[in-house]
Amino acid sequence: MTFDQFLQYVFSGVTTGSIYALTALGFTLIYNATNVINFAQGEFVMLGGLTAVSLHEAGAPLALAFVGAVAIVATVGVVFQLLAIRPLHSAGILAQIIVTVGASLALRTGAMLIWGREALPLPPFTGDEPIKVSEATILPQTLWVLGLTLVIVVTLQLFYRRTLTGKAVRACSVNQGAARLMGISYSKVVLLSFGMSAAISAAGGVMITPVSFMVYSSGALIGLKGFAAAIFGGLGNPAGAVFGGLALGILETLAIGALPMSGASGYKDAVAFLILLIVLFVKPQGLFGGRSVEKA
Amino acid sequence: MSELSLSQVSTGYGRIQILHDIDLRVGDGEIVTIVGANGAGKTTLLRVISGLIGIWGGTVTFKGRSLSRSSVEARAGLGLVQIPEGRQLFGSMTVEENLELGAYCRRRDGRPFLEKRDEVFTLFPRLGERRRQQAGTLSGGEQQMLAIGRALMAEPEMLLLDEPSMGLAPLLVKEIFTTLRELNSRGLGMLLVEQDARIALKLADRGMVMERGRVVLEDKASALLDNPEVQAIYFGQHGGGGGSRTENE
């Protein structure tokens, strides 16, 4: 592999990696608030992309379609928590996790009924003229994906570190009982976490649709990759989730490039899960995992 | 008038009844202490008052209004603030962040944060020195100071204290209780649950003895201190009632 080829793979890897990162971040937000692994997380990504397609087809400019799709999916996340998760509060974590599996099937089927089985495109945010970097090229959309991912991650950190509401969310994940004694409403923190989690993943979905299209079934694989990324970085650690997502995306594309046979890209998905398995064998708490996984 | 009153309160976990017909009154600015062995129901009683567990029967009122419809979250805002057993700090967050969260229930109607924070730092200068340190890295005594400071940020009218002496060296216990006395002299009422019956009764105005979920004795604290029965059961041989404090209630 020449350096330019390497660069090309990296560019491609960070694009998908950013989406894994945002999905992993979605897992992290919900996990930290509730200890629930939300297996419908990938569907939020898919819904974000497809909703934006519809809004754009209805005449909304891209920026508006982006914001609108994120807002709509955030609402879906909140309603999902209220209707599916909250009633199971006393039934325990496992029941809640199982209901997320069911919800993912329901959302996928619903999406198929609304948008059909065709993969739908969205125009790139600003043109599709590739930019030359050395001998490799980078799509403007890749820069959008990277830039917006960075903005989301930094904003989220500022929210957690600087705002009272963000600190209240952290307090709930450290010690729910004590947080409630301080007057923090745990149920509102959970709702907020579901809304933010859905919004972040939906944003990922909108950004990636111009690159790889979106179809009703896309959420399943993206969700699993995002989950792998969250585990890779250490479940519960937002910075780890972002690192895990980017690392997974890059490793995945590099592995395809390194495999000598033709049709190697068919093994792309296997690479992600191979990495997940290795991490679970060697370091089950993930690369930066502070909280123990058994806690779930 | 910030009076806390319980009347005929009973509760339990699952089908097992823990508290039986508890009557209790803590007047404005008064300190009432509850002494009793492990498993007597002291912590459960505090959890009832802060709303962490529901009641089966009876009433809990604060400042003349029933708390039956107030959530845990709402009670701190009413001025009824609990310092839970084992401090329950937010260990991975800084001292200052813990204080900020203590003031959470007063985010709309409270006094300015910085003013209150500086009062806490005046009361506990060591917390001021460690304001950027993670709460989990503080010593046991400092953690108890932070737990009290965090509660004060909520502008309480009545403090519910659960075992403030737990795990602390005698000298630190003394320091903490001196602070509690000072806070009380400013008019803060307290309901104090404490294993160390002697030091608790010295601080309190009135005391109640609990056994197996019932109040079996109630008197002025000074009278309980002199009560031979109480001395025999709760003060231990060397004073301090420290014999059984290794277990968790």
Number of strands of chain A: 2
Biggest sheet of chain B, open or closed, and with what strands and sense? 6 strands, mixed
CATH-level-2 architecture of chain A: Orthogonal Bundle
CATH architecture of the largest domain in chain B: 3-Layer(aba) Sandwich
Low-confidence stretches of chain A: 292-296
Which runs of chain B of at least 5 residues are low in confidence (pLDDT < 50)?
A: 237-249
Biggest chain-to-chain interface with counts:
A-B, 17 and 26 residues
Strand content of chain A: under 5%
How are the SSEs ordered, and which strands pair?
The complex is a heterodimer of chains A (296) and B (249).
Chain A: H1 3-34, H2 41-57, H3 62-85, H4 93-115, E1 131-133, E2 136-138, H5 140-162, H6 164-174, H7 176-181, H8 186-212, H9 218-233, H10 238-258, H11 268-282
Helix pairs in contact in A: 1-5, 1-8, 1-9, 1-10, 2-3, 2-4, 2-8, 2-9, 3-8, 5-6, 5-8, 9-10, 9-11, 10-11
Chain B: E1 4-13, E2 16-26, E3 31-36, H1 42-50, E4 57-62, E5 65-66, H2 72-78, E6 80-83, H3 95-102, H4 113-123, H5 125-129, H6 140-152, E7 158-162, H7 170-185, E8 189-193, H8 197-203, E9 206-211, E10 214-220, H9 221-226, H10 228-234
Parallel strand pairs in B: 3-8, 3-9, 6-7, 7-8
Antiparallel strand pairs in B: 1-2, 1-4, 4-5, 9-10
